[in-house]
Write a structure and sequence with these properties.
The chain is an alpha/beta fold. The chain folds into five domains: 189 residues, Rossmann fold (3-Layer(aba) Sandwich), CATH 3.40.50.300; 192 residues, 3-Layer(aba) Sandwich (Rossmann fold); 106 residues, Orthogonal Bundle (Arc Repressor Mutant, subunit A); 82 residues, DNA polymerase, domain 1 (Orthogonal Bundle); 97 residues, no CATH class. It has 31 helices and 17 strands. The strands form four sheets. The protein has a seven-stranded parallel beta sheet, with helices on both faces. A six-stranded parallel beta sheet has the order 8-13-12-9-11-10, with helices on both faces. The two termini are 33 Å apart. The structure holds adenosine-5'-triphosphate, magnesium ion (MG) and zinc ion (ZN). The site of zinc ion has 7 residues, from α14.
Length: 717
């Protein structure tokens, strides 16, 4: 069997993502391999697929014992022989597993690095070792785990076995360090794009954040989310406050009883609880694919953590939110957390990382670009899916205000922080202000402007580089090379006057399958929960939300069609197919609907057109869209005129393209069509998000949908 056949029959996915295929080839050629791929990118398959093709055993080193079970369960449901060994098992359980390993029945074995079985690897007929979360081996990383250092023995224990190291977070230094510590031999290195196009990044001022949070959660009651807080106490009190507001929520932190912690995690994974309010102790290695949002109530320590924590949203590729409540005050608070006593060098590294995190909060440019650049990846200055890109900023002349600030900073000899500078500007009578400073010319020149306004002006000046902030525990404001020209009156400064949120056309609710049957989706979720209970696994291990959405979109009515739904491997079709099929058949009967599978598979054996009649109502609404379009209105206008989402309008237009009633060139510039077609072919499948991810910001979902429809038209005509 080929890797692709394994992917399709065992895992039920139609095509490889990102660089999965190339990575798998490298592993199969027995090369040491280093993989840097974002959270949720699909690293697991990079060793799971080879494991099924190699003769012997694949050993997976993974840091968290608690999560091994889920991974093994997920494999088991796909019919893969896998197990884990750890200290929580009885001697008899361990012996049973070892017997299976020795009899070569087992394909994958998960181990923690400190495991005592480590020494026995030599007798296990190992074909491949996968080191997951490999950044844990490096003190340059953000999550150093001393026990991972034991892995530097790996190449001595198993000199001829290829090693694949995988991580979602490693800068260049960490990368080199991992390769060196694991003693990889001229490894093939794969670095995927870090862009998670389906995650929208938003930062809001951390002021009345609880009320803001309530507003945010209000519209997301049915969704799963994680809310990160800095302290254990904070998780408990926030969880209690949210529970009072009738949210389905539990706390999680390392100070809780082990059993309670495990129970809370389990309830969250099983969708029995929607919101987990947690410290960063929660989440590593969790593959719950339907987390729709991640909120940070406090500033994370570094971009790596932030990126990894937010990356837990939207692993299924559906639209998700990353929301951070930010105030610069958090930076000083965090400093004591990142300091490592007696280790000035490590402290310096951590303080710098904290500073880079603070910069993210203060950005006035695209947040995605900053994140990607942080990981050394070039990125366009507009992503269309972060708060900055989605906000129209109006600026106005603010030179005089800027001069007041800069001159106060000068007269205070660049030795004071933001609050003091503002107090001087406003002529505060606080006892903190030194007498000398009351005599300054700038004392009180800004009394007509509020403290909040000065704060945002200073933030703006910092962001535009007219001011700088020193490092250290108590940062002070400093002049920069750009300050002098402003003070001289030789440069005009434009300050932010107002910000207006733009409508968010592209990423509104469920782009991938705007036409899915919401009622059926809810029914399918229930079916899934029942199956998961029988199997004693979390629901998403049975099937992801993305798979359920596909079911609710294309309405497969038999086992053969179900094979074409992403996530349905052979075993799952056989085991769970009937239950889902029953639900879909009943739903279609009750609602007078027919299957839409023909919309999914582009290849048809004959040119026969046996398209079912769609309900009349639906045709009328599409026709209205078409009429408006023909009359010269753009999709955005039509959406506004008809109170529809742009996604729906685009779907209407794509429908006519698919039936040959509208030319694709009317929707997509001809120069773009070939590029989009190529991306669709390379990515495979019908999910828009990965195709969009591949194409980048220069292309819209509407364009992709139109080209997809055009390809279907070509295939069937
Ligand atoms: N080729 C593919 N097609 C469809 N879905 C895929 C594909 N590859 C992986 N997935 C799905 O993507 C999700 C994330 O994959 P995986 O758990 O391997 O992520 P990861 O890269 O290990 O992330 P993390 O760094 O958080 O551990 C899983 O639900 C997986 O089934
Ligand atoms: Mg992983
Ligand atoms: Zn952006």
């Amino acid at each position: 069997m080929s890797p692709l056949e394994i992917l399709r029959t065992r895992f039920g996915y139609s095509s490889f993502r990102l660089e999965q295929e190339a990575i798998i080839q490298s592993v199969l050629q027995r090369k040491d391999t280093f993989v840097l791929m974002p959270t949720g990118g699909g690293k697991s398959l990079c060793y799971q697929v080879p494991a099924l093709l190699l003769d012997g055993l694949t050993v997976v080193i993974s840091p968290l014992i608690a999560l091994m079970k889920d991974q093994v369960d997920a494999l088991r449901l796909n019919g893969v022989q896998a197990a884990y060994l750890n200290s929580t098992q009885s001697g008899a359980e361990q012996d049973a597993i070892i017997t299976k390993v020795l009899s070569k029945e087992m394909k994958l074995l998960y181990l923690a690095p400190e495991s005592s079985f480590f020494r026995r690897l030599g007798s296990f007929n190992v074909s491949l070792v996968a080191v997951d979360e490999a950044h844990c081996i490096s003190h340059w990383g953000h999550d150093f785990r001393p026990e991972y250092l034991l892995l530097n023995q790996l190449k001595q224990t198993l000199p001829d076995v290829p090693v694949i190291a995988l991580t979602a977070t490693a800068d260049k230094v960490t990368q080199r360090d991992i390769i060196e510590k694991l003693a990889l031999r001229s490894p093939a290195v794969f670095v995927s794009s870090f862009n998670r196009a389906n995650i929208r990044y938003t930062v809001e001022p951390k002021k009345r954040s609880f009320e803001k949070l309530l507003g945010f959660l209000e519209t997301r009651k049915e969704e799963s989310g994680i809310i990160y807080c800095l302290s254990r106490v904070a998780t408990e009190s926030l969880a209690a406050d949210l529970a009072k507001e009738a949210f389905n929520v539990l706390p999680y932190h390392a100070g809780m009883e082990k059993e309670q912690r495990a129970r809370h995690q389990e309830m969250f994974l099983r969708d029995d609880v929607k919101i987990m309010v947690a410290t960063i102790a929660f989440g590593m290695g969790i593959d719950k694919s339907n987390v729709r949002y991640v909120v940070h109530m406090d500033l994370p320590k570094n971009i790596e953590s932030y990126y990894q924590e937010t990356g837990r949203a939207g692993r299924d590729g559906l639209e998700s939110e990353a929301l951070l409540y930010y105030t610069y005050a958090d930076v000083s608070k965090m400093k004591k957390f990142v300091e490592i006593e007696g280790n000035a060098e490590q402290t310096r590294i951590y303080l710098k990382k904290l500073d880079q995190m603070a910069t993210y909060g203060d950005l006035v440019t695209c947040r995605r670009q900053y994140l990607l650049n942080y990981f050394d990846e070039p990125a366009p200055s507009y992503c269309g899916n972060c708060d900055i890109c989605l906000t129209q900023v109006e600026r106005e002349e603010g030179t005089v205000q800027a001069q007041k600030v800069l001159s106060a900073v000068t007269r205070l000899q660049e030795r004071f922080g933001t609050n003091y500078v503002i107090d001087v500007l406003r002529g505060s009578n606080s006892a903190k202000i030194m007498d000398d400073h009351r005599a300054l010319k700038t004392f009180g020149v800004g009394a007509d402007t509020s403290k909040e306004e000065w704060t945002s002006i200073i933030r703006d000046l910092l962001a535009q580089g007219y001011l700088a902030k020193s490092d250290g525990t108590y940062p002070v404001l400093k002049l920069t090379a750009k300050s002098a020209a402003v003070l001289r009156g030789a440069e005009r400064v434009m300050l932010v006057r107002s910000k207006e949120k733009l409508p968010t056309p592209m990423m509104q609710v469920s782009e991938q399958s705007a036409d899915y049957e919401a009622g059926l989706f809810m029914i399918l979720k229930k079916v899934r929960t029942a199956l998961a209970q029988e199997e004693n696994v979390p629901p998403y291990v049975v099937l992801s939300d993305a798979s359920l959405r596909e079911l609710a979109t294309y309405l497969p009515l038999d086992r053969a069609s179900m094979r074409n739904i992403s996530g349905f491997g052979e075993l799952k079709v056989e085991r769970y197919g009937p239950a889902f099929e029953d639900a879909i058949v009943r739903y279609c009967e009750e609602n007078g609907m027919a299957t839409r599978m023909h919309l999914k598979s582009p290849k048809r054996t004959s040119g026969r057109r046996d398209r079912p009649e769609r309900p009349q109502r639906e045709n009328e609404t599409k026709q209205q869209t078409l009429d408006l379009f023909k009359a010269g209105h753009l999709p955005g206008d039509i959406a506004a005129l008809r109170s529809l989402s742009v996604g729906t309008v685009e779907n209407h237009l794509a429908y006519y393209v698919q039936y040959g009633k509208l030319s694709v060139e009317e929707l997509v510039r001809p120069a773009k069509i070939a590029t989009i077609q190529l991306a669709i072919e390379q990515v495979g499948g019908k999910m828009l998000a990965p195709i969009k991810e591949k194409l980048g910001a220069g292309f819209t979902y509407g364009e992709i949908k139109a080209v997809m429809a055009y390809l279907e038209f070509k295939a069937t005509s």
